[in-house]
Specification:
single chain; mainly beta; four-stranded antiparallel beta sheet
């Protein structure tokens, strides 16, 4: 069993930055893929980014490429999402999630159903 705790959200002006953290307990994340999803007001939860266990492969939604950077520190059992150049449309509750590494295709990392464990979410609000 893995428990994930998201943190780092807050209120920021457009163009600002935030760094989200996803800390795991109960079991190491070192063999998992970890993703970030977000759910804006009245919207479905959508994929933002993911990183493989080694950190060597990362994946991003087109809407955040070039602005967000995902990284992980397996020694600390923590994954980070650095968010720069934030826009009002980035406003959402952000969730981290952990799932198994895929032996077939990385496209599964973009789907919510791939992940077994979820954090409680952290609110990010970007004002214009």
């Amino acid at each position: 069993q893995v428990q994930l705790v998201d943190s780092g959200g807050g209120l920021v002006q457009a163009g600002g930055s935030l760094r989200l953290s996803c800390a795991a307990s109960g079991r190491t994340l070192s063999t998992s893929v970890v993703g970030w999803f977000r759910q804006g007001p009245g919207k479905e939860r959508e994929f933002v980014s993911a990183v493989t266990w080694s950190g060597s492969s990362t994946y991003y939604a087109d809407s955040v490429k070039g602005r967000f950077t995902i990284s992980r520190d397996n020694a600390k059992n923590t994954v980070y999402l650095q968010m720069n150049s934030l826009k009002p449309e980035d406003t959402a509750v952000y969730y981290c999630a952990a799932g198994p590494m895929s032996v077939y295709s990385a496209t599964t990392y973009y789907t919510r159903t791939h992940y077994n464990y979820w954090g409680q979410g952290t609110q990010v609000t970007v004002s214009s």
